[in-house]
């Protein structure tokens, strides 16, 4: 193995792998360093009791058909030179936003949500159409920070606070590191990816996408080192000169692309960081495994975004481990899989906001008790939110698991278990060091597609084009 690379990428998540592929395609030597044994970062997978569980992937957003050349998903296939078939994408059946006063159904056809809003919020349909036009016309992928927030924009366009909250609920849960709001460009990216393009999923889940990226990286000559953590980034005179690894060895490099996060990367450089910049938002997720399709219980939506409380709040819970009053319920069985290619078991995943500090303070025994208790309580929430089951699901339950903010921190390295990183983003990817750049969550693009686009964009700008 070499001790010098043109480019070193920190992290084998979606952004890191995509960045490394672009770098290798440009003829540069590149290595990806990952401190864990499994690639994928926030979107990985693990085995337990003979089953493979996805971590992170509810759906691949930004679904697009083959001929839509401007679609972000198709741009990824072109930039990485990966055939579309390698991702094995199957569109959703249909999803729903459920609040106490109203319910809105949507599919990968934007007309469905527009019809729902025209029916349930007729006074707001013109404002909603203005939002759609704005989203379609705005270039939200520019690597600049315009300092605008989505909340004031939505209040200007849509008068009814219930509809505003219902539209924000999926968007915040699928990408906001800011409580109760998000950057306007991030809103545009997520609105387009959820409501104008939509959801899809490989039959085998996220490992299909990870395998495709790893295969391409190998084909183009990129290297990957697993269980290879970075102890510190070596700097001199405003430049990064190399990396000291956890085993004490060093690598020299001309450029570093880090997907470790803004605060985490700065701390690797020896820069003392204000811990207030660490993201506040983390989640728990329960995974229930059934021996039959959840559709047999009358649960037919692909994804349900819900709030049982008004006003809807997207905040870290202050007084408890978990806020059970809002969240996301995903049923991976409900995608349009080809005949004979369906999931072998039924899966129901429920995600809710959690308090990292409270989970962290629990002694080991109390931590396990809390996981058991909150698994039970969140199943009760699912029963409250989803349609009344046509038969008792508990008799079909054959497996379960749950992750907490501590799980997220352990397997991603994100301080505080902050799934979406810091609320402060570096959209241009720049740091205080001239050859060290950020990609991934804290660069500002969102979701699996966004993460890959982030890696591609940063690699193109600072390595391929050489800005």
Could you characterize what this model shows?
Residues 14-461 form the Amine oxidase domain. Keywords: Oxidoreductase. Belongs to the carotenoid/retinoid oxidoreductase family. It holds the Pfam family Amino_oxidase. The protein is α/β, with parallel strands linked by helices and 467 residues long. The chain has three domains: 4-57 and 205-276 and 423-464, FAD/NAD(P)-binding domain, CATH 3.50.50.60; 111-193, no CATH class; 280-412. It has 13 helices and 18 strands. It has helices at residues 14-25, 72-80, 110-120, 125-137, 150-157, 161-173, 184-197, 206-219, 262-268, 356-360, 364-385, 405-412, 447-464, and strands at residues 4-10, 30-33, 44-48, 51-55, 90-91, 95-98, 103-106, 200-201, 223-225, 230-236, 239-245, 250-258, 282-290, 303-307, 322-330, 346-354, 397-403, 436-438. Strands 1, 2, 9, 10, 11, 12 and 18 form a seven-stranded mixed β-sheet that branches. Strands 7-6-14-15-16-13-17 form a seven-stranded mixed β-sheet.
């Amino acid at each position: 193995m070499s001790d010098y690379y043109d480019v070193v990428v920190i992290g084998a998540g979606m952004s890191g792998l995509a960045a490394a592929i672009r770098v290798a395609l440009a003829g540069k030597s590149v290595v990806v360093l990952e401190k864990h044994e499994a690639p994928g970062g926030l979107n990985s997978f693990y085995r337990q009791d003979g089953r493979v569980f996805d971590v992170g992937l509810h759906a691949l957003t930004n679904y697009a058909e083959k001929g839509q050349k401007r679609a972000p998903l198709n741009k990824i296939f072109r930039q990485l030179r990966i055939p579309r078939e390698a991702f094995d994408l199957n569109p959703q059946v249909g999803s729903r936003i459920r609040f106490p006063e109203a319910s809105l159904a949507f599919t990968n056809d934007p007309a469905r949500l527009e019809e729902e809003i025209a029916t349930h919020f007729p006074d707001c349909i013109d404002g909603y159409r203005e939002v759609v036009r704005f989203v379609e016309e705005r270039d939200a992928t520019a690597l600049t920070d315009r300092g605008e927030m989505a909340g004031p924009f939505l209040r200007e366009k849509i008068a009814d606070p219930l509809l505003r909250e219902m539209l924000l609920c999926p968007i915040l849960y699928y990408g906001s590191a800011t409580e109760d709001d998000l950057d306007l460009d991030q809103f545009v990216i997520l609105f387009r990816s959820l409501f104008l393009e939509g959801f899809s999923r490989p039959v085998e889940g996220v490992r299909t996408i990870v395998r495709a990226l790893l295969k391409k990286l190998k084909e183009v000559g990129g290297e990957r080192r697993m269980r290879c953590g970075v102890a510190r980034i070596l700097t001199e005179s405003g430049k990064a000169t190399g990396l000291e690894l956890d085993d004490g060895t060093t690598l020299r490099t001309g450029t570093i692309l880090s997907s470790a996060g803004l605060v985490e990367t700065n701390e690797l450089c020896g820069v003392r960081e204000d811990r207030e910049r660490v993201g506040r938002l983390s989640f728990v997720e329960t995974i229930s495994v059934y021996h039959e399709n959840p559709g047999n219980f009358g649960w037919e939506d692909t994804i349900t975004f819900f709030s049982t409380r008004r006003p809807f709040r997207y905040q870290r819970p202050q007084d408890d481990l978990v806020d059970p009053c809002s969240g996301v319920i995903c049923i991976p069985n409900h995608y349009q899989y080809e005949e004979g290619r369906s999931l072998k078991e039924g899966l129901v995943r429920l995600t809710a906001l959690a308090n990292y500090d409270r989970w962290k303070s629990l002694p080991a025994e109390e931590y396990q008790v809390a996981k058991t208790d909150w698994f039970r309580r969140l199943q009760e929430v699912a029963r409250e939110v989803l349609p009344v089951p046509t038969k008792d699901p508990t008799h079909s339950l054959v497996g379960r698991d749950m992750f907490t903010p501590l799980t997220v921190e352990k397997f991603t390295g994100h301080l505080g278990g902050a799934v979406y990183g810091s609320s402060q983003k570096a959209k241009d990817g720049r740091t205080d060091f001239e050859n060290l750049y950020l990609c991934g969550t804290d660069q500002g693009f969102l979701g699996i597609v966004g993460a890959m686009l982030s890696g591609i964009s940063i690699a193109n700008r600072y390595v391929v084009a050489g800005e």
